[in-house]
Specification:
This protein is α+β, with helices and mostly antiparallel strands. It has 6 helices and 18 strands. The protein is 15% helix and 31% strand. It has a 7-stranded antiparallel β-sheet with strand order 2-1-18-17-7-9-8. A 6-stranded mixed β-sheet has the order 3-4-5-13-10-11, sandwiched between helices. A hairpin with a 4-residue loop joins strand 14 and strand 15. 38% of the residues are buried.
């Protein structure tokens, strides 16, 4: 599929594509996001990347770290909430603007059980809704979570610069007072144990607060989703995702408050058909804030993939 399409990754503070910026994948240069709910810094790494911006590195030194040698992608971010959000309310996952119920493949329920086992046991949602979604609580969904200091604006901006302007993998734990926050709630030091701990009941989620003004770092990654093929490759199951996106050409991740509906940030992976008259180019120009799609329903112009691309 890489010879027919180009991948583009954008991020912004809302679902509105006109607010998005193109992410420099694998560059080590984070994308800064400012929203009414938080300040965030996002880095995206994709193994064997073929996409925009042109000339992007095909990989990142991130994937040479022992925990990540088999991973296909990473969404790493730092963020500082502008208001306190209760632990039960903050979710991370995928959602869509249009129904996909008529495109759901046979055996989906079995595949979803594999996803919950392999990726996120806390994942929940409704793929048959008019606006389908699959969300997991951020405290159990994030593969890595690190708690930082609660400080003033200047200190936080310095922490942003130091924490994301490199290709080092985020490590589980806490720093500059953040470890004490974890210890006060008896949260395990190990990442897998922390995820399991927060799956242990709503009371544990409710006792956690994403504090206003505190810095958090997180990383979401796995070896199962191949963005170059838009394919989900699970143990004993493989699916070309492109064929089941309801005619859309994108997959988006969102960090949001599920109780208020407020979005902290959105990351969108868009597949663009290459322009046959422009070697290496895409039919849609690289969007910035000025030339992103004017529609709020789709982060990019939709296209209907050819049948052979869905096999």
């Amino acid at each position: 599929m890489a010879d027919k399409y180009l991948l583009r990754v954008t991020a912004g503070p809302s679902y509105d594509p006109s607010s998005h910026q193109v992410i420099a994948v694998n560059s080590g240069i984070p994308t800064s996001i400012q929203s009414p709910v938080c300040s965030a810094s996002i880095s995206v790494r994709i193994q064997n990347y073929h996409g925009l911006p042109h000339g992007s590195p095909s990989t990142s030194s991130y994937f040479s770290h022992p925990p990540h040698t088999h991973d296909q992608y990473s969404i790493g971010f730092s963020f500082v909430p502008h208001r306190t959000i209760n632990g039960k309310s903050l979710v991370f996952g995928n959602d869509f603007e249009h129904p996909i119920r008529d495109r759901i493949p046979p055996g989906f329920n079995a595949a979803f059980r594999i996803v919950k086992w392999a990726i996120d046991p806390g994942l929940d949602g409704d793929v048959y809704a008019d606006k389908p979604y699959l969300y997991g609580n951020a405290l159990s969904s994030m593969n890595v979570l690190s708690v930082g200091p609660k400080a003033g604006k200047e200190d936080i901006e310095k922490q942003f610069a130091e924490s994301m302007n490199n290709e080092e993998a985020i490590k589980e734990g806490g720093f500059d007072g953040g470890q004490e926050v974890r210890e006060d709630l008896n949260i395990p030091d190990n990442a897998a144990a922390r995820q399991k701990w927060f799956l242990g009941g709503h009371e544990r989620l409710e006792h956690w607060e994403w504090e206003e003004g505190r810095l958090y770092k997180a990383d979401f990654f796995n070896p199962y989703l191949d963005f170059n093929e838009f394919a989900l490759k699970l143990p004993g199951f493989s699916l070309k995702v492109l064929g089941y996106l309801g005619g859309e050409d994108y997959l988006r991740y969102v960090l949001k408050d599920k109780d208020t509906g407020e979005v902290l940030f959105v990351v969108v992976f868009t597949l663009l058909p290459k322009d046959p008259d422009d070697e290496g180019g895409a039919k849609s120009s690289e969007p910035g804030k000025s030339n992103a799609s004017s529609s709020n329903d789709s982060p990019a112009r939709s296209f209907k993939p050819k049948a052979e691309d869905l096999d």
